Amino acid sequence: MTTLHELIHESASSQERALSGMGRPSLHGRAKRKRAARQARIAAGATMGAGALAVGGALAVPAIWPQNTIAIATLAPAGGSSLPLAADGSLLSAIPANDVVVDVYLDPMCPICSQFSTKYDAKLREIDGATVVYHPVSILDSASSDGSYSTRAASAIDEVAAGAPDRVGAFLNHLWANQPAEGSTLTDDQLVSLATAAGVPSDVSALFAQHRYANAVAKATRDATAAGLVGVPTIYIDGTVFNPTAGRAWDDLVPRIRADVADRQVMGLSQLSGPTNVPASVSATAPVSDAPSARHTP
Question: pTM (2 decimals)?
Answer without folding.
Answer: 0.71
